[in-house]
Predict the 3D structure of the following.
Amino acid sequence: MSVTPEAIRAALKQIVDPDLRADIVSLGYVKELAVDGGRVRFTIELGTHTSSLRETVGDQARAVVSSIDGVEAVDVTVAVRVRSATAPEKGGPPLPGVKNVIAVGAGKGGVGKTTVSVNLALALSKAGARVGVLDGDIYGPNVPLMLGLKAELTTDGRQIRPAEKFGLQVVSLAFMTGDDQAVIWRGPMVHSAIQQFFRDVGWKDLDYLIIDMPPGTGDVALSLSQTVAVAGAVVVTTPQQVSLADSRRAVRMYQKLNIPTLGIVENMSYYACPNCHHESDIFGFGGGEEIATTMEVPFMGRLPVYQPISLGSDRGIPIVIAEPDSAAARAFGQVAEKVAAQVAVNAHRNAVANKGKIPLIQVR
Ligand SMILES: Nc1ncnc2c1ncn2[C@@H]1O[C@H](COP(=O)(O)OP(=O)(O)OP(=O)(O)O)[C@@H](O)[C@H]1O
Ligand SMILES: [Mg+2]
């Protein structure tokens, strides 16, 4: 009996992506399916570098396909292609060179937006994604400090060229103004500077562009939403009641701007002792998760207060690089995993909503 591509696809439908709760055939992950007598070859293209399927999907696929009558050999390649979760009809146009713009914001200053932006970017990059960071904090740009990066803005005559550090593409207004100079921004300047910063950078082939948002009111968020299509926002909170109330406002602000909240991260959530590694809930427990639940947005996890996080930021070596095996760095890794998964979920939702236009399965 001859083996058919339909039989292969039917067998592969048994494998389900637990993040997206759909099978890998319907998700369009199966590519380059070729059947040659009893020999079967195909690629499985996952949607995130951190997918829990990454380790096992090759073996699972081999097992289900091998059990089809007539199959003699199975050649599976596992790859990753991050899909775009931006829905251009909901905001500005897509940003060239970037699949997913992710804003990291908060309702409040000093809760750890920049710390989360930088370490989230590094964790995604370590997992294998192509990642950039845009310092959107025009009032106090400190992404370069946290990355230990001193750079002048360079252009290729047409576009701003991002600096590179730890494998990230980085652009900051600090490159233009110098570390210590006070910059006074008036409303229209803010908008035009942001437009330029969002549109005139030559980002190269990024899966995720993390934007470190400034504290406070939504003028930058508004300009952002009008300038480019944003895949979503990550809202950083701390466990204190004031910050929680502010975070609620931040989620609502992004909703108004048509930017979906990918999730809430609770930073400085509990104390992790650098010496004995004991962890204690000095601020109570569960505040961030509770507002995530009441606002019906995903909860992305808790990050400890851990002194080496701030020391590393001051030295320009973020914790994900400085202590990659620490519990704190692992906590950032888990947040990165959740953020990437939520982007993939949203990308899938958009694709299903546009089903008529986007072919879900492409088999050659
Ligand atoms: N989890 C943490 N453990 C220890 N220190 C932290 C942690 N998160 C942030 N910090 C420290 O808290 C301070 C504020 O963090 P950060 O600059 O990231 O906040 P921010 O929200 O970006 O602030 P701003 O509103 O001023 O932009 C920094 O000194 C940083 O090193
Ligand atoms: Mg900041």
Remarks:
- Residues 220 and 274 are 36 Å apart (CA to CA).
- Residues 357-364 have pLDDT under 50 and may be disordered.
